[in-house]
């Protein structure tokens, strides 16, 4: 064990505010275990995000974690057990921590009542993220922080927590950081919110500034993670949120996986690099790619944001046009915040973490 990460008085005050918010939220009646989406409300009109969209958000997140083949999981910010209920059955042990004692107590009661078969493998603890260092090093193989880091007080705090999380996952483990809000798209998001609320064009600049100023969550530019990972000597994979519906979760958030130094990864430094619009002009062309392990297609318009370019997900999505022998990994593009890059990876390389940034 190590000492908890440093936490200033200001940071503690920030964390205490969010603890009170979630204590209040979790005192309300819960839905079925793994099906409670209380608090997931639309930024556009304040109504609950449709349940089918939230289930897809949960299920695609679970799929990404299970692809890491977890056996001994630590979830920081376990909440109401949305992920735990789906992932714990596949694990030998599952430790869930949360800063809210109400969440931990209520989730424990629900597990004992509804999923008693998990009691022997699940441990719940009231523990804020910056005190993760109190847990044993290398005791887990996958550490999860899903839809959590936006409530951290600063990037410095995030760096401290992630450094500890990587040490808890050990050299062969992985840290999954899900549902990260994209700072480079904050103005785009604020504009969409203002228009959805009926703000006239003349009033947009003031409305956008107001929305940004009132946003108290931590938004993170995708470029921050590769810089952090380089300092730590950790490979990193950054992926767009998966989903068939273009909503605020799939448009403006992303997932990150930090791989331990001994964990097998798929490198992309020797990928065949093609540019969308020049070398590749349609999704049909994806079936005629160079015969190399990884093809990197640069600068594909993000249809979720621009309304142009190929469909990314769904029955007619780009991922359905990929040849059977490859899988598609979608990541943010250096060519601009409204573009994505597509990595076509030979399936014979397995489902290991793909190093999207070097």
From TrEMBL:
GO BP annotation list: methylation
Keyword Methyltransferase: yes
One Pfam family per UniProt: Methyltransf_12
GO MF term list: methyltransferase activity
Keyword Transferase: yes
CDD domains noted in UniProt: AdoMet_MTases
Annotated InterPro entries: Methyltransf_12, SAM-dependent_MTases_sf
Domain Methyltransferase type: 74-174
Keywords of this entry: Methyltransferase, Transferase
Transmembrane intervals: none
SUPFAM superfamilies in UniProt: S-adenosyl-L-methionine-dependent methyltransferases
Name used for this protein in its record: Class I SAM-dependent methyltransferase
């Amino acid at each position: 064990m190590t000492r908890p990460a440093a936490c200033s008085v200001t940071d503690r005050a920030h964390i205490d505010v969010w603890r009170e918010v979630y204590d209040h939220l979790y005192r309300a009646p819960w839905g079925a275990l793994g099906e409670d989406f209380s608090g997931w409300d639309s930024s556009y009109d304040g109504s609950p995000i449709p349940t089918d969209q939230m289930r897809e958000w949960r299920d695609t997140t679970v799929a990404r974690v299970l692809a890491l083949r977890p056996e001994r999981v630590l979830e920081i910010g376990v909440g109401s057990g949305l992920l735990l209920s789906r992932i714990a059955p596949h694990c030998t042990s599952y430790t869930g921590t949360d800063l809210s004692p109400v969440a931990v107590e209520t989730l424990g009661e629900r597990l004992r009542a509804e999923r008693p078969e998990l009691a022997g493998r699940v441990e719940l603890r009231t523990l804020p993220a910056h005190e993760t260092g109190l847990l044993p090093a290398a005791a887990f193989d996958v550490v999860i922080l899903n839809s959590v880091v936006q409530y951290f007080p600063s990037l410095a705090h995030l760096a401290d927590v992630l450094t500890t999380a990587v040490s808890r996952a050990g050299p062969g483990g992985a840290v999954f950081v899900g549902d990260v809000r994209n700072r480079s798209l904050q103005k785009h998001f604020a504009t969409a919110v203002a228009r959805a609320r009926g703000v006239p064009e003349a009033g947009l600049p003031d409305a956008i500034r107001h929305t940004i100023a009132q946003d108290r969550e931590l938004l993170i530019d995708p470029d921050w993670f590769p810089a952090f990972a380089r300092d730590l000597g950790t490979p990193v994979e950054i992926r767009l949120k998966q989903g068939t519906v273009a909503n605020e979760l799939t448009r403006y958030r992303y997932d990150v996986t930090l791989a331990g130094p001994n964990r097998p990864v798929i490198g992309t430094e020797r990928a065949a690099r093609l540019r969308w619009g020049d070398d590749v002009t349609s999704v049909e062309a994806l079936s005629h790619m160079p015969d190399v392990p990884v093809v990197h297609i640069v600068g594909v318009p993000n249809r979720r944001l621009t309304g142009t370019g190929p469909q990314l997900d769904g029955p007619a999505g780009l991922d359905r046009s990929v040849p059977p022998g490859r899988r598609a990994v979608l990541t943010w593009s250096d060519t601009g915040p409204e573009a994505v890059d597509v990595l076509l990876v030979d399936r014979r390389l397995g489902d290991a973490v793909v190093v999207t940034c070097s």
